[in-house]
Amino acid sequence: MDTDDAPTASSPAGKPIRPIELADALDISRPYAQLLLTGKRPWTQALALKAWRATGHKLGGLEALTDDECDQLERLTGAIRDAAAPEPAPVPTRPIAASGEGFAV
Fold first, then answer.
1. How many distinct structural domains can be found in the chain?
2. What residues pair up with 17 in beta bridges, in sequence order?
3. 65 CB contacts (<8 Å, ≥6 apart)?
4. Is 42 part of a structural domain of the chain?
5. What is the pLDDT of residues 7-26, one digit of tens each?
6. pLDDT tens-digit series, residues 47-104
7. Which of 14, 33, 38, 96 could be stapled to 22 by a disulfide with Cβ–Cβ 3.0 to 4.6 Å?
8. In which domain, by residue range, is 38 found?
């Protein structure tokens, strides 16, 4: 068995998740998934929540939370992210002049 495929964490049902499964679910590299699962890289809340949604495994500090608490955390972090997002720049209502056009000489 390849070490990248070795089970390293388990779900509530007790079935371990393999780095390849986590990598596929989160669209990350297998080595990065391995580092996350072995604790050599820290989890962000957003990534831990994404992993929980995609795989059902509570990882990265979510292990002690109930599903309802994870839902609340997800809503809270989403609200914070949305509030911190900058407003999009306004779209010009008229075409931008080509270089040299519209300038007095």
1. 1
2. 9
3. 58, 73
4. yes
5. 445 455 568 899 999 999 99
6. 999 999 999 999 999 999 999 999 999 999 887 777 777 777 777 677 666 666 655 5
7. 33
8. 17-61
